[in-house]
Amino acid sequence: MSRITQSSKQEQIEQFVERAKEVYRAQLAAKLEPAYIGKIVAIEPETGGYGLGENEVEAARQARATGHHGPFFFLRVGSAYTHRWMTPRR
After folding, report:
1. pLDDT digits (tens, 9 = 90+) for 6-49
2. Residue 47 included in any domain
3. Per-residue pLDDT at 84
């Protein structure tokens, strides 16, 4: 997998996201759920490395402290979303 940068093409970004989600499903979900439900996980898809935190900054710091350098994809443990925006119903 190639590195994701600011100049990456849409297809590369989509592959990065899909790989990160696959790493979560295949390797991390069983390990992190239910003990860490609601925490943010920073996933380094190329290595399968990760870090946990209360927010994205903490999760990335924890991942870097264990030798992972990113780029990271963030998810909330136990959810398909990191953040979910709700709009008022009319």
Report:
1. 778 999 999 999 999 999 999 999 999 999 999 999 999 999 99
2. yes
3. 67
Residue 82 lies in a domain: no
pTM of the entire predicted model: 0.84
In a domain, 86, yes or no: no
Q: Is 79 helix (H, G, I), strand (E, B) or coil?
A: coil
Task: For residue 40, give its domain range.
Answer: 10-76
Gap between the Cα atoms of 5 and 42, Å rounded = 17
Total of domains in the chain? 1
CA dist list (Å): 22 to 45, 75, 85, 87: 9, 12, 24, 29
Do the domain assignments include residue 50?
Answer: yes
Vertex 64: Cα angle to 30 and 78 (nearest 5) = 25
Tokens 């924890």 belong to residue: 62
